[in-house]
Amino acid sequence: MKNLMRKTFFSMVVILLCLGVATISHAQAMFNLPGFSANTQPPNDDGSTGPISVSSALGMSSLDYFGNNYSQFYINTNGNLTFTGPLSTYTPSSLSSIGEPIIAPYWADVDTAVNGSAPVTYGSVPGSPDFNGQQAFGVEWNGVAYYASADKLNKFELVLVNRSDVAPGDFDIIYNYDQVQWETGSASGGVDGLGGVSASVGYTNGTNAQTYVLPGSMIPGSFLDSNLSTGLIHNSLNSNVLGRYIFQVRSGNVINTNVPEPGVLTMLMGMGVPFSFMLRRRRRLA
After folding, report:
1. What's the rounded mean pLDDT across residues 120-130?
2. Which residue has the higher pLDDT, 109 or 8?
3. Peptide bond before 148: cis, by omega within 30 degrees of 0?
4. Is the confidence at residue 2, as pLDDT, over 50?
5. Phi/psi of residue 64, each to 5°?
6. Is residue 165 in a domain?
7. What gap in Å lies between CA 180 and CA 150, rounded to an integer?
């Protein structure tokens, strides 16, 4: 009977581990909607778009972001969106000290001018069922290189969703990650895309009081796919989709739960010591 219980237990563990690996190792958080690739930013290093009107992008007059109403924004190649002007800074720093509002799905040294890199694309989708019928604007870094190599590529997406159905100026912010292979450009102290001053993820109005930095920001190795514990594709926030992090902006304030939720494999890894102990014990009893 004990042997049967052990075999059943270990079979369940193997099944859960397989499910976890299958689910996590092939993250598909990005929406990849055709509208999000309607416009292409020319290949560049540290560039930005011109001002994009909130009205044309989201069908609302302005976004209420920490009490300020913005009628336009800029997409910056280095993995972020700003409101008061373009941002060419390629090495991330403390979000609370940059002195300007920013939404940063992956602030690091993206270089789309490198041969082998995909460009940054962006555009709108009106009334998509993916967003409960609301208009959304997406930016895709779908296979982008770092400065100055394309031997590793990242795939991530920023989506803004019109939520003026809740209140004027309200919107949602969604960060999606399908692949994170690099974290740093060589001009930021990285070697082969790793180490140095690594990527930062979060948002801010430019001050300490209104800043959120995702745990693992600027800590080398934290966000990579190879990190099964804190890698961006292995966790989520306010979503049951791995690799997806959702923030609601209501009346100018960003609502979030502050702590990313781990995926199946991450939780099972936390039980690794008991598993290994039981495996060793089973071998002795066999």
Report:
1. 96
2. 109
3. yes
4. no
5. -90, 105
6. yes
7. 13
**What are the tokens at 12?**
């369940």
Rounded-to-integer distance, Cα 180 and Cα 155, Å: 6
**d(Cα 235, Cα 149) in Å, to the nearest integer?**
27
Closest to 114 measured CA to CA, from 201, 46, 48, 180: 46
| Tally of structural domains, the chain | 1
Domain membership flag for residue 21: no
- Nearest to 65, CA basis, from 193, 171, 165, 208: 171
**What amino acid occupies position 16?**
L
Question: Of 238, 107, 217, which is closest to residue 172 (Cα–Cα)?
Answer: 238
pLDDT confidence of residue 258: 64
Angle between helices 2-24 and 272-285 (to 10 degrees): 140
Contact 111, 135 (CB under 8 A): no
CA distance 173 to 93: 21
Please write the tens of the pLDDT for every residue from 237-278.
999 999 999 999 999 999 986 667 776 544 454 444 443 333
Confirm whether 200 is domain-assigned: yes
Question: What pTM was computed for the model?
Answer: 0.86
Contact 147, 185 (CB under 8 A): yes
Going by the DSSP 8-state scheme, the letter that residue 133 receives in this structure is T
| Domain, as residue range, for 93 | 28-260
